[in-house]
Amino acid sequence: MADENKNSLADELRAHFGDRISNVVEYVGQTTIEVQPIHWLEIARELRDLPQFRFEQLIDLCGVDYLAYGEDEWATSEEATSRGFSRGVEGAAGPGRFSWSTRPRHEQWQRRFASVTHLLSLSNNQRLRVRVFAPEDALPVVPSVTSVWPVADWFEREAFDLFGIVYEGHPDLRRILTDYGFVGHPFRKDFPLIGNVEVRYDPEAKRVIYEPVTSVSPRVLVARVVREDSRWKTARDEAADDWKDN
User: Fold this and answer.
1) What is the pTM of this model?
2) Which CATH architecture is the domain 9-70+106-189+224-245 placed in?
């Protein structure tokens, strides 16, 4: 039987790290903390080594672009018509909605790029998400954790390639998915949906050539809608009913 008096992971984190962490959130069984880049390496070592945490395994590391977070170009459950659910619609801000001067800023996410790490403690059977925001948008830089969890090597290269996040201290930071000479970072929200250039074989020149995109029209492809999952609400309601019955 579980110890009902045992502190939650969030409580343990607050008690140990104090003001070195912020935005400690427990949601649908997942604990998330936010860490300033200056503290990230020391906190990472403590999360790995201290017995009350013992996060030995890095499960995943990814980049996140919070540009226009919460803004959408989709008709969802509130606006959907008989023509279908989650239909792409014309952006309210029109062309250039992602310009630096007019970009929407969510009230919570004032910074743009974050590196998000997912950790697993096999010893304590716990999971933790750690979000580290880059201080600058123009050149996002955060510390590399390859010295703490070596498996972060290729994850950080992927985030660098796709989001342009620079991991300071990485032993071999270079692109891993895009082609040689690729321009830009394709997972940034202001990256053109049709790309910058297209490649084709020119039979007259007898070689592959790069040229401006002309064969594809811009369109809405990805639903960037923040939705509540009804399954979690149902689970919470059922758990509350069970607690009342007992």
Assistant:
1) 0.72
2) 2-Layer Sandwich (3.30)
